[in-house]
TrEMBL record:
Domain Prokaryotic glutathione synthetase N-terminal: 5-121
UniProt protein name: Glutathione synthase
Organism of this sequence: Nannocystis pusilla
Gene3D superfamilies, per the entry: 3.40.50.20, ATP-grasp fold, A domain (3.30.1490.20), ATP-grasp fold, B domain (3.30.470.20)
Domain Prokaryotic glutathione synthetase ATP-binding: 128-298
Domain of life: Bacteria
């Protein structure tokens, strides 16, 4: 049987209403797969990379059940080497800050030796907010603002309202809506709080069709769900109170999915959450993409079964190439 290691935030922070990791671990255990968990916050970053990878703090996952607090049962803490596992599943949530990058850089040293979902070197190389720019025919126009002058210029250049997103955040945190004539003092206040950003033109479809998530593993579509902002809001994030509903992807959206996965899967970005507003890509999530729980509910299936099937197929292919 293969051995899996799930690296993540402390289990006390898991949110069973949204959490993919709990379902993934439960499905692996149901198949008799050995699963360990590593709380990345407990790793000793003073160690050199080789020593760090050889002595990860891990615990055996004894059970995982999102309906039963404390949701996951863990064995005794021990040390284990990353190389002892067949698959590493990285589920650390953003922000993609210095600590996150430090952990990812350590795991990137294992590139080509162990299947990692997703490959840390590629996670470090890209931004979830900027990756759609690589597919301009499928994406909302996006401006990357590294300084305040660029932010001000990008907002002023919009034909209508601008959507401004902090580079390192997720779940709708920090998103601002600014008209081209927004006072500079207001823009400056946002910049002082969040810094580096992307700017996109506001899409009216977010309040009518919602923010559409298509979740993929490899070239396989696990499912789709649309998230509609709560009344009075324009944030279509579940963590911001949005509701979720079933939807059928359009041919144009599926063409974008095919183009994105054809380029990114060979690079090691296997598990993706592609977000669309209307038919246009707004983000490509690859750090810890979610919505699997909601997809399962609206599509009346258990996508974690397909997820593990596809990861196992990737593992077998990876092992055959090694």
């Amino acid at each position: 049987m293969p051995r899996y290691l799930v690296t993540a935030d402390p289990v006390a922070t898991f949110q069973p209403r949204f959490d993919t990791s709990l379902r993934l671990m439960a499905e692996l255990l149901a198949r008799g797969v050995e699963v360990d968990y590593c709380d990345l916050t407990l790793t000793d970053m003073s160690l050199r990379t080789d020593a760090w990878l050889a002595a990860l703090p891990v615990q055996r996952v004894q059970w995982s059940d999102p309906t039963r607090p404390p949701y996951v049962g863990l064995g005794e803490a021990r040390r284990a080497a990353a190389a002892d596992y067949d698959v590493l599943v990285h589920r650390k949530d953003p922000p993609v800050d210095a600590r996150y990058r430090g952990w990812a850089a350590r795991f990137a040293a294992l590139a080509g030796r162990i299947l990692q979902i997703n490959e840390p070197a590629e996670v470090l190389r890209h931004s979830e907010h900027l990756l759609p720019v690589r597919f301009p025919e499928h994406a909302i126009p996006t401006v990357h603002c590294r300084d305040f002058a660029a932010l001000r210029e990008a907002v002023r250049a919009q034909p209508g309202e601008a959507v401004v997103k902090p580079m390192g955040e997720c779940s709708g945190i920090g998103i601002g809506f600014f008209r081209p004539d927004t006072p500079e003092s207001v823009l400056w206040g946002w910049w002082q709080q969040y810094g580096e950003a992307v700017v996109q033109p506001y899409q009216d479809a977010v309040t009518t069709r919602g923010d559409l998530r298509i979740l993929t593993i490899g070239r396989h579509v696990l499912g789709s769900v649309t998230r509609l902002p709560r009344p009075g809001s324009r944030l279509a994030n579940l963590h911001q109170g949005a509701s979720f509903h079933a939807f059928e992807p359009t041919p144009r959206q599926l063409a974008a999915v095919a183009a994105v996965t054809a380029e990114l899967v060979p690079r090691g970005l296997y598990l993706l959450g592609l977000d669309f507003i209307g038919d246009l890509l707004s983000e490509i999530n690859f750090t810890s993409p979610s919505a699997m729980v909601q997809i399962g509910e609206v599509m009346h299936k258990r996508p974690e079964v397909e997820l593990v099937d596809e990861i196992e197929a990737l593992r077998r292919g990876f092992t055959a190439r090694a």
